[in-house]
TrEMBL record:
It comes from the Eukaryota. SUPFAM superfamilies: PLP-dependent transferases. The keyword Transferase applies. InterPro entries: ALAT1/2-like, Aminotransferase_I/II_large, PyrdxlP-dep_Trfase, PyrdxlP-dep_Trfase_major, PyrdxlP-dep_Trfase_small. Residues 84-449 form the Aminotransferase class I/classII large domain. Keywords: Aminotransferase, Pyridoxal phosphate, Transferase. Pathway: Amino-acid degradation; L-alanine degradation via transaminase pathway; pyruvate from L-alanine: step 1/1; Photosynthesis; C4 acid pathway. The lineage of its organism: Eukaryota, Viridiplantae, Streptophyta, Embryophyta, Tracheophyta. This is Glutamate--glyoxylate aminotransferase 2. Pfam families: Aminotran_1_2. GO terms for molecular function: alanine-glyoxylate transaminase activity; glycine:2-oxoglutarate aminotransferase activity; L-alanine:2-oxoglutarate aminotransferase activity; pyridoxal phosphate binding.
Length: 481
């Protein structure tokens, strides 16, 4: 019988090689256990609403009216919806040519892009051009569009932080490029050393790889660190010297849990540095409605903004965006609402502030509870989650546990995470799915479980971990590998 194009052996090799650990073996096993009736706590993915975070009221009111515009003609609409939500729904519907069911411009609705530009100007103190802003189906789609534009073949490399969010490794593999890792230093709170960047580029060039772009994730995923202005300046200078485009993944910019290092955009730092660098470095910045106190992952709203990208290149990026015709329109409106929320004096302002502050304050508490919980466990060390929504503890696995994993054909941290899942129902992601130094093991968990559930979850983790270590530890003493 002749083989067919979609037979496994005939598939695109890049598809078969690409891995995405966040929805990998652990997630699939957790889903099986859930079907069998076991209670599973899915902390494997940053999905706030799935773990009980309540949607903000005002944007849902506006989107409800946009989705069902006939409600605006109902004489009782003013009893069901506040006047500012009604006005905002009319504002967005006026921007569309047929409501939410009609295609928009391939870059997104011009009025929403203008609101994004105003948000960026207010945040950074420098004007932003709506024509250089593309609305996308979540930040992930924007990242893939830009990587698709940058990667020309297997000899093109992208500098990616390790540990990294596997969107980057999977996308680079899928597009046929080469991932060039630069390692963050765990003992320096996941800091970045520019000398390591230079070494990574030199090693890549030795292998015949042309490094074309550098990714930063700030605040970090999975590591939770926030980059300082000094570090951002070093990164910008490095990219300028090496003629790299800087890709700034800044989707967690609302998620900050300490006061020492507030979020500052790469764009602001670049423009503060002044000419010639501010006029020359190519930068693409990404944001989304999926994170922060919005957590609207299923709405798939995002954007990217381009700085110092030549007009002809922007035209080519627009051409690629046009193949998909239009980003989803409800997601665009969510983005407009995120960058242009209720203002002081608006009817919905107090409720909006109360809800958003409540979510952030609770996340800050949960970041502390989780870090302290991990650090109370045997053979577990964890840096504090400064930002984003993840904890990335190092699990110091005893040699006997590593040996047991190898006998089963498992990566050691996969073995540990599977045992954790079976014993407690806590579904995490092994550190090997993000990349890590040889012989060092981690897991990633979100800090998103409900605040009232966190003590029981951490107690359950501690009980499992300490029993696991008791089972596998050599009691003559244990030293870190």
């Amino acid at each position: 019988m002749s083989s067919k194009p979609l037979d496994y052996d005939n598939l695109n090799e890049n598809v078969k090689k690409c891995q995405y650990a966040v929805r990998g073996e652990l997630y699939l096993r957790a889903s099986e256990l859930q079907k069998e009736g076991k209670k599973i706590i899915f902390t494997n993915v940053g999905n706030p609403h799935a773990l009980g975070q309540k949607p903000l009221t005002f944007p849902r009111q506006v989107i409800a009216l946009c989705q069902a515009p006939f409600l605006l003609d109902d004489p009782n609409v003013g009893f069901l919806f506040p006047a500012d939500a009604i006005a905002r729904a009319k504002h967005y519907l006026a921007m569309t040519s047929g409501g939410l069911g009609a295609y928009s411009d391939s870059r997104g609705t011009p009025g929403v892009r203008k609101e994004v530009a105003e948000f960026i100007e207010k945040r950074d103190g420098y004007p932003s051009d709506p024509e250089l802003i593309f609305l996308t189906d979540g930040a992930s789609k924007g990242v893939m569009q830009i990587l698709n534009t940058v990667i020309r073949g297997p000899s093109d490399g992208i500098l990616v932080p390790v540990p990294q969010y596997p969107l980057y490794s999977a996308s680079i593999q899928l597009l046929g490029g080469s991932l060039v890792p630069y390692y963050l230093e765990e003992t320096a709170n996941w800091g970045l050393d520019v000398n390591d960047l230079r070494q990574s580029v030199a090693q890549a060039r030795y292998k015949g790889i042309t490094v074309r772009a550098m990714v930063i994730i700030n605040p970090g995923n999975p590591t939770g660190q926030c980059l300082s202005v000094a570090n951002l300046k070093q990164i910008i200078q490095f990219c300028h010297q090496e003629s790299l485009v800087l890709l700034g993944d800044e989707v967690y910019q609302q998620n900050i849990y300490q006061d020492e290092r507030p979020f500052i955009s790469a764009r602001k730092v670049l423009l503060d540095m002044g000419p010639p660098i501010s006029k020359e470095l190519q930068l693409v910045s990404f944001h989304t409605v999926s994170k922060g106190y919005w957590g609207e992952c299923g709405q798939r709203g995002g954007y990217f903004e381009m700085t110092n990208i030549p007009p002809k290149s922007v035209e080519e990026i627009y051409k690629v965006a046009s193949i998909s015709l239009s980003p989803n329109v409800p997601g665009q409106i969510f983005m407009g609402l995120m960058v242009n929320p209720p203002k002081p004096g608006d009817i919905s302002y107090d409720q909006y502030v109360r809800e958003s502050k409540g979510i952030l304050e609770s996340l800050r508490k949960r970041a502390h509870m989780m870090t302290d919980g991990f650090n109370s466990c045997r053979n577990v060390v964890c840096n504090f989650t400064e930002g984003a929504m993840y904890s990335f503890p190092q699990i110091r696995l005893p040699p006997r546990a590593i040996e047991a994993a190898k006998k089963l054909g498992k990566v050691p941290d996969v073995f540990y995470c599977l045992r954790l899942l079976e014993a407690t129902g806590i579904s995490t992601v092994p550190g090997s799915g993000f990349g890590q130094k040889e012989g060092v093991f981690h897991l990633r968990t979100t800090i998103l479980p409900a605040e009232e559930d966190m003590p029981a979850i951490m107690s359950s983790f501690k009980k499992f971990n300490d029993e696991f270590m008791e089972q596998y530890e050599d009691h003559r003493g244990y030293s870190r590998m």
